[in-house]
Specification:
Helix content: 25-40%
Strand order of the largest sheet: 6-5-4-7-8
Number of helices: 6
Shape: globular
Radius of gyration: 41 Å
Distance between the termini: 130 Å
Structural class: alpha/beta
Strand content: 15-25%
Length: 208
Amino acid sequence: MLPKSYRVFSVVLLIALVVAACSPAATPTPQPALPTPVPATPTAAPAADPTPVPPTISIVSETGSSRVIKHFMGETTVPKNPKRIVVSGSGYIEHLLSLDIVPVGWSTPGSTADIGAPGHIADKLRGTVNVGTISEPSLEAILGTDPDLIIGMSGVHDSIYQGLSAIAPTVIIANPWLDWRQTLLIIGEIVGKKDLAQQRLAEYDKRL
């Protein structure tokens, strides 16, 4: 038989184990919540310069019957006084008309050639050829007009420049409505009527 003191110790130990087993589990101390990360405010990109690039050209050289013009796609020799002009950008039609030139071919301002010429100038274009839309002019139709000069629009006709140039000397300038006054002077320079273009602008300013 075990000594009495040992038996007392065993009973006390057993009681302690039972109490420990029956005690509720300790509640863990809550940890402070981590702050929600705030996304960084994106830095706004600098605003694009709204000033359009004017449709510039320059005269490289001249001879008795022709001139070399530097434009968006390079240098082109054009007649000084072209007689049969095709404009692949419809906005150039009115610039030519203001210089007393009726183009032999022109493109429509819409997405389909069926639209035809703008109503306010349709009568002046009777007998001329609709060569398609601005974005997709027909090279075959342009060839059929037998032009001696083609004027096209940068960013629209760059990809067909070689095809246009194979038909007739081609000059590519900027969108005609970025700066219509500058465009009129440039077209006047191209077709040999710069003085008349300046006169038209002076007449317009007097009416203001």
